[in-house]
Amino acid sequence: MLAFLRSIRRKNLKDSKLRGYLVYAIGEIVLVVLGILIAISINNYNEGLKKRDKELEILKQLKDEFKLNQSQLEEKILMRNEGLEAASQILSYFDNKQTFDEAGFYQALWKLVRDPTFDPIENDIVGTENLRMLTNAEIIQQLSRWSSDVYQVQELELEYQKFRSSQLTPKINTMGLGRNLQNELWKNGYTPLEALDKSANYKQNIGESHSKINYDKVLRDVELEGMVATSITFHRITNLQSDYLRNVIAKTLELIDSEIERF
Fold first, then answer.
1. Which sign does the torsion angle of CA 226, 231, 236, 240 carry?
2. How do residues 77-131 score in pLDDT, each as one tens digit?
3. Which of 14, 91, 180, 182 is most buried, taking the most CB atoms under 10 A from its CB?
4. C-alpha span between 144 and 55 (Å, rounded)
5. Which domain holds residue 213?
6. Is residue 10 part of a domain?
7. What is the dihedral of CA 204, 209, 214, 215, to 10 degrees?
8. Domain for residue 56, yes or no?
9. Whole-angstrom distance, CA of residue 108 vs CA of residue 87
10. Are 173 and 117 in contact (CB under 8 A)?
11. Are the beta carbons of 191 and 201 closer than 8 angstroms?
């Protein structure tokens, strides 16, 4: 097409037909500009497809991560709920010593010395170029707040971890309950709630302590009683924060699913 226009241009120049030359010169320019614009449009279209593919990839990655975080958080909430029930059971022994059950006491006590800590997957979206690939403002807002929301839960977990390690566990060992506690845990087989293999059942023969435990004295120890009551406060407050985080995850997954459906 360009060669055809050039041949006409040369002919018109030879014949001194200036008007015709200008018409065809303008036509040639228009054709070149149109070609450039078409090339740019095709390039922009291809870049747009690449961005959409990348955004979809990021959204799917986020969905997988938040599903795993959701599962882990539910596990930690369950552990703390079991801890709340266990603390109430132990306090009932303090209140009514006739109901005391040795095996039940140790099983409940173990649920208080567990360490339910939420450790979510840290995605590499926030603070990176990938965040700009997302077009949904609500998802961006959820992601931007995610770290601070998680911190609210982890901060409380850390406080209970310190309490358990510095006060509750030493108290249990000082009262001579440590060996019997571990023996009760493992003697019939035990599968930790947080175990990666939920089907595994682990057994260990530790044996009971040869020292006679005065359970009447144990159930009159106001310091242990206070520690059990304190564990209720820790677990209750942490689960209140965890409930909020649970809703954040559910909302984020809902937004992500809606966004994925657009593709």
1. positive
2. 999 999 999 999 999 999 999 999 999 999 999 999 998 999 998 776 766 677 7
3. 180
4. 17
5. 76-261
6. no
7. 0
8. no
9. 7
10. no
11. yes
Residue 35 has pLDDT above 80, yes or no: no
- Other beta carbons within 10 angstroms of residue 34's beta carbon come to 10
What share of the chain has pLDDT > 90, as a percent?
Answer: 63
Cβ atoms of residues 66 and 256 within 8 Å:
yes
Q: Using CA atoms, how far apart are residues 72 and 121, in angstroms rounded to an integer?
A: 10
Q: What is the pLDDT of residues 202-253, one digit of tens each?
A: 888 899 999 999 999 999 999 999 999 999 999 999 999 999 999 999 999 9
Q: What is the pTM of this model?
A: 0.81
SS3 content of the chain, % helix, strand, coil (to 5): 75, 0, 20
Per the structure, the count of domains in the chain is 1
44 located within any domain? no
Residue type, 6: R
Judge whether 5 lies within some domain: no
Q: Which residue, among 43, 33, 78, has the nearest Cα to 194 in the 3D structure?
A: 78
As a whole number of angstroms, the distance between CA 236 and CA 244 comes to 13
CB 144 within 8 A of CB 92: no
